[in-house]
Amino acid sequence: NENVSLLDHTHHELVRRIKDLLIHVQTDLTLLSTADKKLLNEAQTNIDSIFLLVVVGEFNSGKSQFINTLLGEKEEICPTGVLPTTDVIQILKYGTKRKDIIESEHIKSIYLPNEWLRQTNLVDTPGTNAVLQTHQQITEHFIPRSDYILFVTSVDRPFSESERLFLVRIHQWRKKVLIILNKIDQIQKDTDKEKLLNYVRSNAHQVLDDITVPIFQISSLKSIGIDLLENYLRTELNDKKKLKLKLENPLGIAERIFDKYLAIVHERKQTLVNDEQALFILHSDVDEYRRQMLDDFKLQLSKIDNIFFRMIDNMEEFLLEYIQISRLIPTLFSSSSSAELKVQFNNRVNKNIEQDITLCISHLCDWIVQRSNRTVHQLNKHLNASSSNSRRQQQVIKETNNSMSSGADVDFSISRQQILNQLQTQSQNILYKQKTANGAQADELTASIRSTMLGTAAIEVGAVGLGALATLASFDWTGLLGAGLIGIFGLYLIPMRRLTIKQEMKDRIDKTRIDLTEQLRKHFSHELDNNERKMRELIMPYARFVQDEEEKIQKTIEQIETVRKQIKQLKLDIDISLCQKGKLQ
Predict the structure, then answer these.
(1) H or E element: which one contains 225?
(2) 35, 73, 381, 554: most buried, per Cβ within 10 A?
(3) What is the pLDDT of residues 243-258, one digit of tens each?
């Protein structure tokens, strides 16, 4: 192999910088798929290889015949025919004698003693738009390696839709293209040739966004226009131009990959915008839950207050009716009168007090659980909506499995879906636990409240006199009123103490109401804080995922922008280096 490389020692620094850049991209850009890392690694290796001129086009456009004519070999190097004939990449290289070597399943090297190939490897590719889709895939995968593209179309179907799409893919890789309009011998009139040329030129300029794209009309079968094309390739595609293309080729590959990942990043950003909106709704649900619970708890407490206010009203009526001299005198002479007083007090003042309070407490616990479950159901509903969007996104990626899809992008969608699935499962667990714990919470709170009221009642067990009797009676939920009439002979003081007795009883009832309310507040605050914490914890993995992805996206964008600036500077330095070398020569 006596191929001559375009690179010499004056380009070593530029080559080193380009290779370093490609290595850093592979290392630092964590979003890169394995396939794209491999592509960048090949670009790094290929920078030292000989200039690669790749011939592409649809099957039966005359690619192989064109190559045979261009090289001027007596024997047919590349097989021709009306059916797709080339099923592998054929790389034509310089060698002292003809030799064919199978490099891999889809690549074959053919060595020829042809001067045309000393500084250029010429590549014949399988035809695109063939029945065998693998032919097009082989060709498309080889495009990034090329330094320059010869795009062959024919007059019988010039610039078809499939050719346009294929040129779009070529342009995405930042490749320079020369268009060959083959089989021109089939067109007789010059006016028709001009119309055909203008048609191809207009479409090519639109797709490639380049008004300088060279277009040559040839007939490879009859060698029409071949000399003109060959002269162009030797003069316009000279060593300096080849060297510029060779050095810029890996940079173009990097830019194409960046374009792809920026598109992925922007897709992710839009998904995360939706996620942020979902998170805002989820946190708003929890905020609204707390606000409504605090507001509605006042109503729940008012039900407890009303029980005690009713008790005070009953107590006042009882005192007005029974605590009079005329009705109390018999108690001085009858042991049964105190029992009757106790019965009357219980019937008029204490009746159903404990049951009513217990019922209110039970309703309070039910209310806490029901409102909490309603909010968790709401959270689950929003998580379901986000999860459905994520599944739709995965389906779209799966159905559009093309060159724009990335393994990293699929990983993003899958990890996002896993987070949402976990949150839904956890929310269901919260609902179940709250349901099973509801009865136990009510019993526990009722026992605690009972203890509070018993403690209040027991304070006055040792007291004497009617004041003590009334105070005990007003809280005798356990039958302690039996201490009743100790000190009954103090009854003559009743006219003077009636108001005092009434106030003492009201104060004792109010104190119990306040103690009970405070205990309910503590329990409610504990449950509210605990439920809110569980809801926030339910959302937290989702929020962390969104935050982490936003940081990754921002880091990726910054990395790409940094490398883009380096690529821009490298391109400028390549032009300066080649310009200086031209002056020296």
Answers:
(1) none
(2) 73
(3) 899 999 999 999 999 8
296-346 pLDDT, tens digit per residue, is 999 988 988 998 888 888 878 877 776 554 555 555 445 555 566 667 777
Phi-psi region of 174 (alpha: psi -120 to 50; beta: other; left: phi over 0): left
Q: Which of 278, 284, 280, 535 is nearest to 388 (CA)?
A: 278
Is the pLDDT at 19 greater than 90, yes or no?
yes
Which residues lie below 8 Å from residue 26, measured CB to CB, with a gap of 6+? 32, 37, 40, 41
Measured in residues, the chain has a length of 585
In the three-class reduction of DSSP (H, G, I as helix; E, B as strand; rest coil), residue 48 is classed as: coil
Give the list of residues 6+ apart from residue 105 with CB closer than 8 angstroms, or none. 88
Confidence of residue 40 (pLDDT cuts 50, 70, 90): very high
Q: What is the pLDDT of residues 73-117, one digit of tens each?
A: 777 777 665 445 557 888 999 999 999 999 888 889 999 999 888
Strands 215-217 and 177-182 turn out to be parallel
Indicate the CATH number of 50-237 among 3.40.50.720, 3.40.50.300, 3.40.50.10790, 3.90.1300.10.
Answer: 3.40.50.300
Higher pLDDT, 242 or 400: 242
For the segment 392-418, the average pLDDT, to the nearest whole number, is: 47
Distance CA 438, CA 364 (A): 10
Cα–chain center distance at 499? 72
Q: How far apart are CA 432 and CA 376, in angstroms?
A: 11
Residue 172 in this model has a pLDDT that exceeds 80: yes
Distance CA 129, CA 137 (A): 10
The pair of three-digit structure tokens given for residue 529, joined into one six-digit string? 């804080």
**Residue 127, token pair as written in the block:** 């035809």
Q: Which two tokens stand for residue 80?
A: 């021709």
Closest-CA residue to 200 (of 183, 186, 217):
217
The burial class, CB within 10 Å (0-12 / 13-18 / 19+), for 9 is exposed
Task: Decide the pairing of beta strands 89-94 and 107-112.
Answer: parallel
Picking from 369, 386, 353, 382, the residue whose alpha carbon sits closest to that of residue 431 is 369
Q: Are 123 and 76 in contact (CB under 8 A)?
A: no
CA–CA gap between residue 99 and residue 115 (Å, rounded) = 16
The confidence score (pLDDT) of residue 561 equals: 92
Q: What would the pLDDT profile of 450-508 be if each residue is shown by its tens digit?
A: 454 444 443 333 333 323 323 333 344 333 333 333 333 343 344 555 677 677 778 88
d(C-alpha 559, C-alpha 548), whole Å: 16
Picking from 123, 102, 144, 8, the residue whose alpha carbon sits closest to that of residue 55 is 123
Instruction: Name the residue ranges covered by the structural domains of the chain.
Output: 50-237, 264-462+471-482+505-558
Task: Enter the tokens of residue 489.
Answer: 């002979």
- Give the number of other Cβ atoms within 10 Å of residue 308's Cβ: 20
